[in-house]
Amino acid sequence: xxxxxxxxxxxxxxxxxxxxxxxxxxxxxxxxxxxxxxxxxxxxxxxxxxxxxxxxxxxxxxxxxxxxxxxxxxxxxxxxxxxxx
Amino acid sequence: xxxxxxxxxxxxxxxxxxxxxxxxxxxxxxxxxxxxxxxxxxxxxxxxxxxxxxxxxxxxxxxxxxxxxxxxxxxxxxxxxxxxxxxxxxxxxxxxxxxxxxxxxxxxxxxxxxxxxxxxxxxxxxxxxxxxxxxxxxxxxxxxxxxxxxxxxxxxxxxxxxxxxxxxxxxxxxxxxxxxxxxxxxxxxxxxxxxxxxxxxxxxxxxxxxxxxxxxxxxxxxxxxxxxxxxxxxxxxxxxxxxxxxxxxxxxxxxxxxxxxxxxxxxxxxxxxxxxxxxxxxxxxxxxxxxxxxxxxxxxxxxxxxxxxxxxxxxxxxxxxxxxxxxxxxxxxxxxxxxxxxxxxxxxxxxxxxxxxxxxxxxxxxxxxxxxxxxxxxxxxxxxxxxxxxxxxxxxxxxxxxxxxxxxxxxxxxxxxxxxxxxxxxxxxxxxxxxxxxxxxxxxxxxxxxxxxxxxxxxxxxxxxxxxxxxxxxxxxxxxxxxxxxxxxxxxxxxxxxxxxxxxxxxxxxxxxxxxxxxxxxxxxxxxxxxxxxxxxxxxxxxxxxxxxxxxxxxxxxxxxxxxxxxxxxxxxx
Lengths: 85, 574
What we know:
The complex is a heterodimer of chains A (85) and B (574).
Chain A: H1 2-15, H2 41-55, H3 65-68, H4 72-82
Helix pairs in contact in A: 1-4
Chain B: E1 3-11, H1 18-27, E2 47-48, H2 54-61, H3 70-86, E3 92-96, H4 102-113, H5 126-135, E4 147-149, H6 157-170, E5 176-183, H7 187-195, E6 216-217, E7 219-227, H8 228-233, E8 240-249, H9 262-275, E9 284-286, H10 293-307, E10 313-315, H11 318-321, H12 328-342, E11 344-345, E12 366-367, E13 372-379, E14 383-390, E15 409-411, H13 416-422, H14 433-449, E16 456-460, H15 466-478, H16 486-490, H17 496-505, E17 510-514, H18 520-533, E18 539-546, H19 550-556, E19 566-573
Helix pairs in contact in B: 2-3, 3-5, 6-12, 6-18, 9-10, 13-14
């Protein structure tokens, strides 16, 4: 799990162009949207693409992202259960 | 003075002229169906295609086999109808588009690498697709030496074209103007909207509680406008009048509209004020109504704020035509003129579920006389425009001379070290290096001038945001339309720069973008000068933007051209 979280943080940094950040700068349990990283609806779409590209998870409804993308940990947990690659 | 409409012309999924369009509106016959000509891999996505292949459109447009984007073919067809109806030549032509010749680029991109099909390259440019329309219409012959402009503010482009045309009449810069817009479907923006997950796999349902996104459409819509005295003198039939108009910026987000519909509310309110009307005077609103969850909720909020409990008849005609993006303001204004002429309110098709916070549209085409009609067109970046058409002439102020314009200050060079001082890494994370440079130049000129929020932000760009466009195009071709990211698409539209600066500086003022080859800046300055002469604005931030892109240079080298990095900002003040 810890390895997946670390890998996911790196993928988020790359996909969302957080050039100056390292995985240590992202709190695993902090909210990704609103406060915390302060992501918006475009980032949510980028994360949906990331889930498909890296883990073979297809999310058809953008609204579902709201619960899955609550924090890096909730994302990692969802990936662990649902990944197809 | 009064501005009369003496000609209209349309082509869309519901008809190749006004008569067919009227017939479809009355019969409540939608043009949305499965894709036949676009050739995208996403065959499950319904579209509002003009139901003819390019060969047939060429025949209708009366052109041979010279290189022409589908946008220009649609433009020629609708423009011909408007000009014939008006029965007179125009001395200015203003036509909005964003797609331009993207259909040719995506079709021939791999040919270009082999040195083939190079006659299409130049037509990629939005402004060139407008020039191609003008070239084929004898009634626009004098425009080449006078004025041709291409506003490119995404889905509000054509409505902004109508506004500039009206301003030019009011300032004596033109005698008769053809205004509107044209846009064909392209795989590029079909895939782009698909990455945003806002394309409904069923026919779209504007303002319905269970709506699930938009259907893209294509088409063109034009109006011939001129001074009322001019129209009367030559005995032209007057179809209606321009009552009022306004352009604002939501200044909220690159793609999402604000919850309270601030920009839309301000645009409609200012258009009413200019027309000297009260909300209760409006008989019909042709809403932007794309059927995305976000647009319809935000637009409803603005409509409810403006009209309160006395809601006029409201409908979105996008369930007939699909969302014709940059052409929508021209097509839907022409539909409003048709509706007024024939006394009908077009249906908002496919609506069945109401919800709190959403306006209740007219579900069947109704016969009723219309005196004042309001038409909305909103674009990416919060470029919001509203226009009022009236059955009786409204007196508009005029100012027959334009003042000279010299910049109060300018920034023509930004060093790399300045960029980090003006753009934080968090806010710049999605921007290309050249976009950051442009934002830095704009912020520096705002600071130097001491004008924090100028009344207008107007950008001039030849190729637009080309780096993001090329990233998206290459990914689309390489992955056969399968692996695409939303960010490059969102930032591929020409209006990205002007709207981004409005968002970063909280500026709800006038916001526009022009793309007209090496005359883009002249177009932007014409707009600013007209508005200053008319007293609508007192200050304007003018931006010049282009970016050097290796991949596009490789294509342009085939015709001996290249791209350049340009990021200049000027402040003008009365």
